[in-house]
Specification:
Length: 97
């Protein structure tokens, strides 16, 4: 009987453990569409790499933003559109609607 219990417990344990990665992802989730003020994000300043990496790439046409120059990119971060060059230098910041 002990052997049968072990065999039945394996699928139960596998199902229980399979939910752990989903819980971990929820804790790391950050809503980039909710506004959060960043007073240091100004033209000529630099953005932290961790902030830039968590930003969502933005289609400038869809959001009526200026066309970025070669090597520049718009991202949505904390309810703001941020345009940076390849070095993380901020070119423009616009609050999203």
């Amino acid at each position: 009987m002990h052997k049968v219990t072990r065999i039945l417990m394996l699928p139960v344990l596998a199902i229980a453990l399979s939910g752990i990665p989903a819980i971990a992802q929820d804790q790391d989730h950050h809503d980039n569409h909710t506004y959060a003020a960043h007073n240091d994000w100004k033209k000529g300043g630099t953005i932290h790499q961790e902030d830039w990496n968590r930003g969502d790439k933005v289609d400038y046409k869809q959001y009526h933003l200026a066309k970025p120059a070669e090597g520049h990119e718009w991202r949505m971060i904390d309810g703001q559109y941020v345009l940076c060059d390849a070095n993380g230098r901020i070119i423009a910041v616009r609050r999203a609607h």
